[in-house]
Amino acid sequence: MYAQYVARRFGMMLLVIVLAVSINFLLPRLMPGDPVEAQLNQLLATGGGGGDISAMVEAYRARFGLDQPLIAQYLSYWKAVFSLDLGVSLAAYPERVSHAILAGLPWTLGLLGFATAVSFVIGTWLGGLLGWPRTPRVTRAFGTSLILFSSVPYFLIGMVLLYLFAIVFRWFPAGGGMPFGQSVGFNWQTLTAIAWHGTLPAASIILAEIGAWALGMRGMMVSVLGEDYITLAEAKGLKPRRIFRWYGLRNALLPQLTKLAMALGHIVSGAILVEVIFSYPGIGFRLYQAIQANDYFVIQGIVLLLSVSIAIAMFILDLAYPLIDPRITTGRD
Amino acid sequence: MAIFSNGPAGLKRNPPLTFGLFLLLALCLLAAIGPFVADEALARVGATLPRQPPSAAHWLGTDSQGRDMVTVLMLAMPQTLKIGLVAGLISLSVGVALGLISGFAGGVVDTVIRLASDVMMTIPGIAILVLVAANVREMTVAVMAVIVASLSWMVTTRTIRAQTLSLRERGYVQIARLNGSSTTRLVFVEILPNLLPFIAASFVIAVSNAMLATIGLEALGLGPQKELTLGTTIYWAQFYGAILRGMWWWWAPPILLISLIFIGLMLTSVGLDSFVNKRVANGS
Q1: pLDDT score for B136
Q2: Does the beta-carbon distance from A222 to B280 stay under 8 Å?
Q3: Which of A89, A297, A302, B155 is least surrounded by Cβ atoms within 10 Å, i.e. has the fewest?
Q4: Residues A103, A285 contacting (CB under 8 angstroms)
Q5: CB B238 to CB A174 under 8 A?
Q6: Position B264 pLDDT exceeds 70
Q7: Could you read off the pLDDT of B63-108 as tens digits, one per residue?
Q8: Nearest CA in chain B to A305
Q9: Alpha-helix runs per DSSP H in B136-223
Q10: Of B236, B163, B172, B240, nearest to B202 (Cα)?
Q11: Which residues of chain B make contact with A272, given a CB cutoff of 8 A?
Q12: Do B263 and A156 touch (CB under 8 A)?
């Protein structure tokens, strides 16, 4: 049963990756006109060009292999993807796209990992409380207002936080991932600097995410409380706190984990603009810069990375569920 | 069906829905009146002195291009709502159609539609949107709506498919089938009316998702270049460092408007959800 389930999920992941790579390949070719001409014209018109133009044209031609038949181009595109050869940046020629991505990745992963973990824990716990009838009114009002917060896009919250805490009060730095000119090293000073710069961006993601987790958890908690085993636990005279933790919270938690996988894509895309607002040196900010400069290969590379990494992350989470809940492999989707 | 049959009495017992709908209605009204009251010339670059804080002449000041912010907002608001509504409607129709077909046809058709929606759900929408938007030469409000809609039909398809599957096994549908009703009749007379609450809920979610995606794209600078929208306003504010320069009147009002739209949509969605999902409603 497990093997079959794993095989199906693996197939799903492969399908997503194939689709993502194909979209990446096809989109520029579907557009009217010669992509090389158009991209370079755009680049020159917006003044984004730097370096040797004829070398760029060559890079483009080689990259697209435009004289080849479409199927050959497609195959060589796959080969390039597998060898992680994502081309060169045009605005920062001759920097390689893969290098640009690798430079931004640790920042994004750190920021997202931290913010997602914190908001998941707080939000889930808060949602459990909201679905629990004995929760005091104050907590309830607080939780409800956080849920309202979660409907507002992350980066808007980020802009308000930036204005209040970096411009008006000057408690936190207004941007960047590190103090200007300081180099990254494994020491206490670096760590505090990174935490210092990451506080506001992380806070905007956490504030916006808590509500979404709380909302989902509240719904689950309410349905779990209707189950017979809760009634039995109450009849047994167990302490309410115990019922809440071990009978309510625990059982309502599973669908939250499923949602964690679904939410990954959403969180990643939401964080792109948070990085832009705080000039945080992750891949979201790099994507923004690439869009500004019409740096097409970088845009393409980052989009590909996002799709593929989310597909893989979801597959890994899929593998973990049956270990937590055996019903998943036997049940329907 | 409670939403429709209970009327105002049903609304009274559902504060989130009441507040949400009221908020959305007020914003739509504002957006409808705006363009008639606004003097379009004031929203052009260089129309007034740039970087003016709010005053009697310019209630919300001017941006660094010399545009009057009140006018900009009055013209941007309807465009933003229009994109959301049009994209929501398109994605809803596609979603409902595919959901019905998938739930009714079963077999290979069902498998293909389900697989397609699963795959599309996995790929992060904004990533693909960025790629598409970066490739489109001339972005307009209409193109934007279509692009966003093409990537947000999946949630509706899933909801409608699940409901169709459950409805088609109900007694009255079975009887209608035995009486020799055509499939068209089954779908339009027996199934569809009972799906209305779910369709209403899906519509709100579709509009919300569409607006989230649009505003995100616009804030990245991939929105319509020649038309004013709330997201584009934020993009320019960010581009010219309005926050760092302390020009709060440039970025705060569009943020407030966008937040109000999303809070309205959220309340409506939560309110509708308690109709659709009775257990949640009774529990809280």
Answers
A1: 77
A2: yes
A3: B155
A4: no
A5: no
A6: yes
A7: 777 788 888 889 899 999 999 999 999 999 999 999 999 988 888 9
A8: B127
A9: 141-149, 154-168, 171-178, 183-185, 192-219
A10: B163
A11: 126, 216, 220
A12: no
pLDDT of res. A179:
74
Q: Which chain B residue shows the shortest CA-CA distance from A291?
A: B134
Determine whether the interchain pair B263/A148 forms a contact, defined as Cβ–Cβ distance below 8 Å: yes
Distance CA(B152)–CA(B143), nearest Å, equals: 15
d(CA B74, CA B60) in angstroms, rounded, equals 12
What phi and psi values does residue B38 have, to the nearest 5 degrees?
Answer: -70, 145
Cβ(A60)–Cβ(A36) under 8 Å?
Answer: yes
Residue A135: helix, strand or coil by DSSP?
coil
Q: Which of A90-104, A177-191, B167-181, B218-232 has the highest mean pLDDT?
A: B218-232
Compute the count of residue pairs across chains A and B with CB atoms less than 8 Å apart.
141
Chain B residues with CB-CB distance to A151 below 8 A: 208, 259, 262-263, 265-266
Q: Which of A47-51, A93-97, B201-205 has the lowest mean pLDDT?
A: A47-51
pLDDT at B282: 46
CA B262-B268-B273 angle, to 5 degrees, is: 125
Find tokens 């997202």 and name the residue. A112
Q: Which residues contact A137 (CB under 8 A, 6 or more apart)?
A: none
What length is written for chain B? Answer: 284
* Candidates A15, A156, A296; nearest CB to B259: A156
CA–CA separation, B67 and B43 (whole Å)? 5
3-class SS at B53? coil
3-state secondary structure B81-95: HHHHHHHHHHHHHHH
> Is the CB of B123 less than 8 angstroms away from the CB of A310?
yes
